[in-house]
Amino acid sequence: MQKLSLPIPAPEALAASQALQQQIAADIRRHQGWIPFSRYMELALYTPQTGYYSGGAAKLGKDGDFTTAPEMSPLFGASLATLAGTLFAQTLPQVMEFGAGTGKLARDFLTECQFSGITVERYFIVELSGELRARQEELLRNFPQVVWLQEMPAAFSGLVLGNEVLDAMPVDLLIKTEQGWAELGVTLAAQQADATEPVLAWQERACEASRAAQIPQAEALPSGYVTEIHTVASGFMRSLGAMLQAGYADSGKGSAAILIDYGFPAAEYYHPQRSSGTLMCHYRHHAHPDPFYLPGLQDITAHVDFTAMAQAALESGLSLLSYTSQAGFLLESGITDLLSRSAPEQVMQYLPQANALQKLVSPAEMGELFKVLMVGTGMTLPERLLRHDRCHRL
Asked: For this protein, what is any one GO molecular function term (predicted)?
């Protein structure tokens, strides 16, 4: 593999990554020298203290590794709040957010609710990272309705938000071989098996043909084709369905989950030309394909197979409400009306927001790459939200 030319980490960050590499190597040895890639990704991202999302380094914004929509503009969270104001007539007036990051989306959402007189009795944040929770608590200290949870509750009725949550869930990697589908997992390079500095390497293992069940026309794909399957995210969708179904049974009120992420329907995701999959790493605003580079210091993501997510939701008893582009969703949620509150003559205030809106909705930026999947129970969406619906593509 070509040597990566990326920024050098600080000594303490490098030491943390090396400690995590030792933990990963120990886990590989405990499992007879091989672990699925999903296990590696879980360790790299979520190991306490040293995993990417569990450590103390800044992840988001100009000083981090990537920028999300809420970090770009308060209009994003305000648009979701505007939509919530119409949906709360069918649900309990409460929100649950997964993957809250810095808390910026929650702050913008609740700020708009205050401004517009939208009642939110509880805003739950499901957060596993103590470091991120501390940052969220500081940012949201003026919003007493915010409650933190460490796990998904058994029942909930209201609005569920997940912005760039599914792409951070561990994926498994499959490779098409001459003998059929095999799983790409992680091992230790043979010559380094007992060395102080473990070297991670790929290793194939035969797997059941059913592992490729979510891949359309799997047998027609060429030998050497590498891709991801989304077992963890599909499980999350089924758990989400069980929670919302239980909430409906308890309260008689509906629920809607809004999941915003980059990805494709299955027919596009598993296109023959997408032969290397979608796995990507982000380190200090550099994107590259090597997941073994400095584990714990870089993000590892894969695009979302929205067909698989919708299928898992349907299997759990939820209804498919909408699937559309981020641009269509935000425009129909009133983002341009929110921008119009700022006078164009106030250039210093207006221009940054107008530029951010352009990035959020432009097909050349985030508007088309990012999709919005809405699933729920006991809900009917406003007609305007269905103008750009693409459920037929799933």
From this structure: methyltransferase activity
For 337, the enclosing helix (H) or strand (E) is helix 335-339
DSSP secondary structure code for residue 59 in this structure: -
Q: Fill in the amino acid letter for 45.
A: L
**Tens of pLDDT along 170-200?**
999 999 999 999 999 999 997 654 556 789 9
* DSSP letter assigned to residue 91: B
β-pair type (180-188, 35-36): antiparallel
Residue identified by tokens 């794909």 is 221
Cα distances from 341 to residues 195, 273, 329, 333, 391, in angstroms, run 62, 45, 20, 15, 33
Query: Mutual orientation of helices 347-361 and 74-87 as an angle, nearest 10°?
Result: 70
Q: What is the mean pLDDT of residues 64-84?
A: 89
Strand partners, 125: 97, 148
**The token pair that represents 99 in the structure block:** 């993957």
Under the banding of pLDDT at 50, 70 and 90, the label for residue 1 is very low
Helix (H) or strand (E) holding 101: none
Residue 381: closest CA among 258, 264, 265, 238? 258
* Nearest residue to 92 (alpha-carbon basis) of 305, 205, 250, 203: 250
d(CA 261, CA 387): 20
Mean pLDDT of the chain: 93
pLDDT in tens, 146-166: 999 999 999 999 999 999 999
Percent of the chain at pLDDT exceeding 70: 95
124: β partners: 96, 147
Nearest-angstrom CA–CA distance, 138 and 157: 27
Q: What pLDDT is recorded for position 63?
A: 47
Query: Which residues, in sequence order, are CB contacts of 64 under 8 Å at separation 6+?
Result: 57, 58, 284, 285
Say if strands 159-163 and 146-149 run parallel, antiparallel, or are unpaired. Answer: unpaired
**DSSP letters for 277-324:** -S-EEEETTEEES-TTSSTTSSEEE--EEHHHHHHHHHHTT-EEEEEE
Vertex 373: Cα angle to 370 and 379 (nearest 5): 150
Q: Are 297 and 57 in contact (CB under 8 A)?
A: yes
pLDDT tens-digit series, residues 118-128: 999 999 999 98
Q: What span, in angstroms and rounded, lies between the C-alpha atoms of 122 and 94?
A: 5
